[in-house]
Model the fold of this input.
Amino acid sequence: MSLRRAVCQPVLKAARTYSTGLPGQVLPPHHYIERIDRRGSVIPGEIDPSELHIINYRSNRPLDLFFELVASALTNRTGDEDLGRVVYKFAKKLGCFKKREKFFRFKPLPFTEEHMNSVIHELKVEASKKFEAISKTGGPAINVFITGGTGFIGLDFLERAGNDPQIKNVTCLVYFKEMQGISQEQYKSNVMGRLNIPVESYAKFNFIPGDVTKPNFDLAPDIISKLKIDTTHMIHLAASVSFQDPYDKMYKANVLATLEALKFALTLQEAPGSKFVNFIGTETCFIHGRQLPPRICREENLTFPRDYYNNFYEPTKALAAFETKKFMIENKLRAIALCPAITIGNSKTGNNRGDTKVINAAANTLGRIHHLIKQLFPVSFLWPIFARTVTFPCSQSAVMDLVPLDRVTDALVASVRKPLATGERVHLTCGGVSIAGIREAWFSEMAMYVSNPVTHRTFVRPVLTNFLRLIGQKKFADNTDKLFEIFNVYSEWGQPIHDMGNDVRLLGLSEKRPNLINSLRLMLRHNQFVQDFGRIRDPLVIAKREKIWSEFLADLEKRTGKSVATMSAEEWKKEQQALKTLLPDLQLTRWAH
Done:
């Protein structure tokens, strides 16, 4: 059996199944994953989480780095990854790059494919009957219970729900520490103030404190009883997206919390007289296999990445996806799995609900560093040199898998109306954006360059971070190190491109997906003018600026007949001056080329 076939074989056979631990127990990776050799034979033994991390397999030998730079430069220059592989093969013949003797794959679920298909068919039928029953009332009939509702995706869903006449009530579970020292009504008022919702719709929202890692979310019995009676759909968005946290902490936040959510959803489903239709959980698009073009990852497949992981967020989300599928089949829980790619702002406004993580963190950190260096060297001949160090690592052949926020929210709203999506995994992606698109957006908006990942990791990043520490900017330096430890791997060989279609076929979303280059360009403009590249953090202040920003964009598009996202950098430069009168504290900055 070939290595690729061994790693990527379907997770369907009822053999070598993983075990389930005690409630609240953090299970080590070998409960889900098995170590294999190049022939696909299992290598027995426990698996330490560190074995899954790519950083532990990189070589720092000078000759290895030399050939790695040559391979990366060839790939970056031509866009042809095969040329890079030729260099690697030649280098290996010379004794470079220690040959990997172990790989990993997920253990299969303990069910046959026939059994899973039978259960999923049954769940679809039951969900359709339940949805038909609640739809016969004639008025608003959808009652949603949501976790993670105050995150950036959650807030976007709340705003959509507040303007949806078919959604009757939304109960939002909030981490109890966020509501300490403040009444539920005041907390609700603060959240509502951040959203564009009619005042008369405020009554449909309710915020309750709890803990997603505790049984029954640590809710009072009377609240649970009411949820059993009213809830038609449960949406689980709560997760930790801290890419720097250790395995144990990420397992608790992503796997154990998901298990508690699944158990609670089953409680709602099995309650006497329950109106419950289905559970909607969010997994992650870019954990589901990492295969190189032209190979396409199937929507329902989970495969272990051949080049391992570069954080513990992704593997724990993968383990949560496994637990969800297993729980659904074993307990016949009606569930839908949505798998968003890296989520950026709204495709029409750039609004990211104040998010400052992942791709937004990269844009904000680089934007602020770029501004800092420009202030230090406003007219100096050193400016072009230092500008070259503030770069985004990206290979010529890389593809970044992104999706705008509104596409994700469209899917959430559709999911509560599409019972036939029950039992399915739906990828939310727009097909990825190439290096050319990233370069166009990054350079045109902020005069920021991109560099090949090996050069960036070996030379550019150390120069930049050491310089920042030298001038007393340790925080910027640390943030830069963290960010590019994450993005360097993604951008070196690209992320997987997944088979798409369930979003259209099952959820009824538009076949015309948002343009990612335009969305990325709009995200950079939005982050500069609304968040001042992350300097402005107060949620209510950001909400006010978002409103001014949206009104400005609407007026500009009406006046010019052009979408702001499609305007060139020079066109946008002329129009943005009007923001001075709307946002007097705005520090307009034009990055000089």
Observations:
- Residues 100 and 406 are 42 Å apart (CA to CA).
- The chain has a mean pLDDT of 83.
